[in-house]
């Protein structure tokens, strides 16, 4: 994602300033011009960039600093503070409380990723112990009902919608009432979109919002829309009092500036980002670690979360002792996808070794995982949990290929690969089905993925090895 480039440019501007013999107003002005250029290139609006520049200058206030102050650090702090301020409007978004019914309404243009994001959001809270439900109030797009229904059944989340009712506000109210009675504590209302901002869409949003009285309205925007984000976000804010933003498709070529503009337009924080088409491709958005990562300062807490995430292989004793089903393979893929480049940790999971992702072919390996997950997304629950080798007959394979838009040969290849891994897995004694942390070689992919300064903080290779061992021990 191009946000990384923005971070890189700002970090470079700061580094150049750091090399100047004397830091004076001229050096600061050069640094600020460089930062402004980087922000404009990332699609941040001119007005916002102008304010950022003025704010950094005012916060650093070089003339008022006592002699002997480290001006570089003061400027660095002002830049980091201003970037955080841009992304944090200072007013936290409403967060649902377990056991207390909340209604959350999703708004956004057609194709922004709204429907997909509703399910990701529901799944996120379900994993936190909530009892979420989905309501489809999109009567505009013909396929919306089926899409949300399919997503919700995949994620095992209750769903309400209607093929026949054409009034979105009526469906929304019926759905909310139904799930309130069923004691759901997070009722998510998906609304319709249009290709462009139209009066009819905003009127519909106003009506649905008035009828359901949501605790939170989330504006979903495609991260790649750039400058148009400001006006779009503002228009939704006026019709349905947006309280939070989710930026999708941050895995693609999103420049990120749009996200900054949406925050400015709605005065609401970004709460999550979407990083892919699958349900687990969803990350909590936390401003400080995000800015740290953006500027290459590392994010230790994020890294810890990611390492913890790979542990479910050990955490799920019933799966570990049971058969190696397609569902287990899918769950492993989910964990690895969540870890981004740390997916290289794959080689630490026994049974997979280097065969699945060949050295130097990590990109192809990731694409293969995505392809396999898409194929498995078209399987039934029975197929995912299947242990009978005869179940996958020709007609099932053809149906899965059709449903996932992949070739029959690709489905067959995936099933063969699953068989191969399952065979290896089944040969492993139970206590060997954990992360391999004993050999230093097995930690190499992790070491390569960690910035050197972070590795130092962890106590080098030995510290890392101890930490991973301790984590593994806690889980067993
Ligand atoms: N790469 C990527 N694709 C995404 C992401 N979120 C959604 N998509 C894809 O974007 C496309 C549109 O998503 P939908 O969820 O159908 O969009 P929508 O906004 O609900 O559209 P309407 O219901 O027509 O208003 C789908 O192909 C999704 O798979 C994401 O974070 N990354």
TrEMBL record:
* SUPFAM superfamilies documented for this protein: Domain of the SRP/SRP receptor G-proteins, P-loop containing nucleoside triphosphate hydrolases, Signal peptide-binding domain
GO biological process annotation, one example: SRP-dependent cotranslational protein targeting to membrane
Q: Which GO terms describe its molecular function?
A: 7S RNA binding; GTP binding; GTPase activity
Query: Which parts of the sequence belong to the SRP54-type proteins GTP-binding domain?
Result: 269-282
Q: Which UniProt keywords apply?
A: Cytoplasm, Endoplasmic reticulum, GTP-binding, Hydrolase, Nucleotide-binding, Ribonucleoprotein, RNA-binding, Signal recognition particle
Q: Which reaction does it catalyse?
A: GTP + H2O = GDP + phosphate + H(+)
Q: Which InterPro entries match?
A: AAA+_ATPase, P-loop_NTPase, Signal_recog_part_SRP54_M_sf, Signal_recog_particl_SRP54_hlx, Signal_recog_particle_SRP54_M, SRP/SRP_N, SRP54, SRP54_euk
SMART domains, per database record: AAA, SRP54, SRP54_N
Its subcellular locations are: Cytoplasm; Endoplasmic reticulum
Q: Quote a single Gene Ontology cellular component term.
A: signal recognition particle, endoplasmic reticulum targeting
As for what it does, the entry says: Component of the signal recognition particle (SRP) complex, a ribonucleoprotein complex that mediates the cotranslational targeting of secretory and membrane proteins to the endoplasmic reticulum (ER). As part of the SRP complex, associates with the SRP receptor (SR) component SRPRA to target secretory proteins to the endoplasmic reticulum membrane. Binds to the signal sequence of presecretory proteins when they emerge from the ribosomes. Displays basal GTPase activity, and stimulates reciprocal GTPase activation of the SR subunit SRPRA.
What the record says about its domains?
The M domain binds the 7SL RNA in presence of SRP19 and binds the signal sequence of presecretory proteins.
Q: Which family does it belong to?
A: Belongs to the GTP-binding SRP family. SRP54 subfamily.
- Quote the subunit structure annotation: Component of a signal recognition particle (SRP) complex that consists of a 7SL RNA molecule of 300 nucleotides and six protein subunits: SRP72, SRP68, SRP54, SRP19, SRP14 and SRP9.
Instruction: Report what the protein is called.
Output: Signal recognition particle 54 kDa protein
Q: Which species is this record about?
A: Urochloa decumbens
């Amino acid at each position: 994602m191009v946000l990384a480039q923005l971070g890189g440019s700002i970090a470079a501007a700061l580094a150049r300033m750091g090399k100047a013999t004397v830091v004076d107003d001229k050096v600061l002005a050069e640094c600020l011009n460089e930062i402004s250029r980087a922000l404009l290139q990332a699609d941040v609006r001119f007005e916002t960039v102008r304010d950022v520049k003025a704010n950094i200058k005012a916060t650093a206030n070089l003339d008022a600093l006592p002699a002997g102050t480290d001006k570089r650090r003061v400027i660095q702090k002002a830049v980091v503070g201003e970037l955080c301020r841009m992304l944090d409007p200072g007013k936290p978004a409403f967060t649902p409380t377990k056991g207390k019914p909340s209604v959350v309404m999703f708004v956004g243009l057609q194709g922004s990723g709204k429907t997909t994001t509703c399910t990701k959001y529901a799944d996120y809270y379900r994993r936190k112990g909530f009892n979420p439900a989905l309501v489809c109030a999109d009567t505009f797009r013909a396929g919306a009902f089926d899409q949300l229904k399919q997503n919700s059944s995949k994620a095992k989340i209750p769903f309400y919608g209607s093929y026949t009712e054409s009034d979105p506000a009526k469906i929304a109210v019926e759905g909310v009432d139904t799930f309130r009675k069923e004691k759901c504590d997070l009722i998510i209302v998906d609304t319709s979109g249009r290709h462009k901002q139209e009066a009819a869409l905003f009127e519909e949003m106003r009506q649905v919002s008035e009828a359901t009285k949501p605790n939170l309205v989330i504006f979903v925007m495609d991260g790649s829309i750039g400058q148009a984000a400001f006006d779009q976000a503002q228009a939704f804010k006026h019709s349905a009092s947006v309280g939070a933003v989710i930026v999708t498709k941050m895995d693609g070529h999103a420049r990120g500036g749009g996200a900054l503009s949406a925050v400015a337009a709605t005065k609401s924080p970004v709460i999550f980002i979407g990083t892919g088409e699958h349900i687990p491709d969803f990350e909590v958005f936390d401003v400080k670690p995000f800015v740290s990562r953006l500027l290459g300062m590392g994010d230790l807490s994020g890294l810890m979360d990611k390492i913890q995430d790979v542990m479910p292989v050990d955490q799920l004793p019933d799966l570990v002792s049971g058969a190696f089903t397609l569902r287990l393979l899918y769950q492993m893929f989910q964990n690895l996808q969540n870890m981004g480049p740390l997916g290289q940790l794959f080689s630490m999971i026994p049974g997979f070794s280097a065969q699945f992702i060949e050295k130097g072919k990590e990109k192809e390996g990731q694409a293969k995982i995505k392809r396999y997950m898409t194929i498995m997304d078209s399987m039934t629950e029975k197929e995912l949990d299947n242990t009978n080798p005869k179940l996958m007959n020709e007609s099932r394979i053809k149906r899965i290929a059709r449903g996932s838009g992949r070739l029959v040969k690709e489905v067959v290849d995936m099933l063969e690969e699953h068989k191969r891994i399952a065979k290896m897995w089944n040969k492993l004694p139970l206590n060997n089905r954990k992360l391999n942390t004993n050999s230093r070689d097995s930690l190499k992919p992790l070491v390569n993925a960690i910035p050197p300064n972070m590795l130092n903080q962890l106590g080098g290779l030995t510290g890392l090895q101890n930490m991973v061992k301790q984590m593994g021990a806690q889980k067993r």
